[in-house]
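User: DMXL2 protein, Urocynchramus pylzowi:
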Amino acid sequence: LTGAQDGSVRMFEWTRPQQLVCFQQAGNARVTRMYFNAQGNKCGVADGEGFLSIWQVNQTTSNPKPYLSWQCHSKTTSDFAFITSSSLVATSGQSNDNRNVCLWDTLVSSSNSLIHAFTCHDHGATVLQYVPKHQLLISGGRKGYICIFDIRQRQILFTFQAHESAVKALALDPSEDYFVTGSAE
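Assistant: Predicted structure for DMXL2 protein:
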């Protein structure tokens, strides 16, 4: 998958020089993050206007529409993670009310899909990492803070400042015992 400033997402296959399909989001907001789910049959795209859209990958139409699209954050959706079999999604971004990390249920109507919103990260959350073994979410913020959330209990477990500037990257080791942060500095 490749994402562009105009909101378009193109899907390629390793052995083919041309794109397989172009997914176009509503509006022209820049793509901030995109992932395949674990099964590889769906892709999600977050954008600079706060939306998250999810498509079925196996579409053959020339102009496919997302099967889900909703505004997760009032300003921007910077990152997201598929939880479980992609029916649960976590997002990070920036919202006017500081609910900058959220859990969503994709199986219910968009008006009822918000499961829980965490009030955290002044000025927004920039990155998100799901830790399946421990059922945790780790988020990084614009001010260098890291928050660790327990998904089952729906509470913040730890908050600490890891950097002086925005956290730009989070990585989890394969055994899920350690995580690494990277910052704008």
